[in-house]
Design a protein that fits this description.
Elements (H helix, E strand, L loop, with lengths): L1 E6 L4 H14 L2 E5 L8 H6 L10 E4 L2 H8 L4 E4 L5 E2 L11 E5 L8 H6 L4 E3 L11 H15 L13
Parallel strand pairs: 1-2, 1-6, 2-3, 4-6, 4-7, 5-7
């Protein structure tokens, strides 16, 4: 099972796009406070997130709370400062895997990067450009996971009407 985790997300549109990725893939969305926006039922309905009820969302007060839930399962922090390429890792459907993404404006701070340096991974990209948009990064990472685990439960062909 894939768990897509946003640490201190700031931009509601990114979180909305990531929520949609979770809805279509079956991944669990984890949000780690503080959040830079409102996710009340009224706010979600106003934003037109009609798929919000099609995904599982877990809210955590701290990163430690999320890591306690992970309970020894694989956890990867995505950062442009990582030395390992995320697609070089062999993911297993047998485990609950956690992909954690940092805040849009700053990424992870040095304390987190230092504490979890063996678990920091990167998405390769050309130098001289800041980085991919957060929701794009999450989608790229999620689909690599699902490719490796053979798209469990996904429709792989279109039957048409």
């Amino acid at each position: 099972m894939l768990n897509l985790c946003l640490f201190h997300p700031e931009i509601p549109q990114n979180t909305g796009n990531i929520a949609r990725t979770c809805a279509v893939t079956g991944a669990i969305l984890h949000l780690i406070r503080p959040l830079g926006f409102d996710i009340s039922e009224k706010a979600v309905r106003h934003a037109g997130l009609d798929y919000w009820d099609k995904l599982e969302i877990r809210i955590h007060d701290t990163l430690d709370e999320l890591l306690k839930e992970a309970d020894g399962n694989p956890v990867y922090f995505f950062s442009k400062k990582g030395s390992r390429v995320f697609s070089d890792i062999n993911y297993s459907i047998e485990k609950n895997t956690y992909f954690i993404f940092g805040p849009e404006s700053t990424g992870f701070d040095d304390e987190i990067l230092s504490a979890y340096k063996e678990q920091i991974v990167r998405i390769p990209m050309k130098s001289g450009v800041r980085c991919l948009n957060l929701s794009n990064s999450v989608a790229v990472a999620a689909y690599e996971y699902y490719k490796q685990t053979e798209y469990p439960g996904f429709e792989k062909s279109w039957e048409g009407e």
